[in-house]
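Quick start: what a row looks like.
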Amino acid sequence: MRARTSILLLIALSGTACAMPTEHWAILPPDQAKDALHQCSRSTPEQVDGSWEIPPSVAAQLEQDLHKLAELKSHQCCSTGGSVSDPNAFLRQYVGVTIRGKKYVYINAIPVEISIHSKDRGAWRRKPAIVCDGGSSFWGALYDPETREFSELAFNGIA
């Protein structure tokens, strides 16, 4: 009886673990903003004059608004007119930046596969991913937590 109860408990717990959603985003600390904006082959926001700590509530709000990103078209080099049809297909790093004193969240996005094939699968949660080229597999954008709008979508260049 005891062994049967233990097996049932293990089955129940394993089902719960599998049902838990995987997080595809991370908040980077403010001291990582400069590195996150130093991308190799894509434009990043200009006139950044500082950084700030993103509270979890702002990240949660951004996640609720993420579907709006699919409507945004890039007006910058390398993929002019391009868009991100499914932002949830990417790992997203969020870092707080200020531009002329106004708070924004910079989104640095990389394909999920990067984490799967990396020796340190959690590295993307701690430090900015900087990748040269890669085209539409790598992108960045700004999010305004006041207006809840996205802007400045840019894709990496293509080698």
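That is the whole record. The chain has four helices and six strands. The two ends are 63 Å apart (CA to CA).
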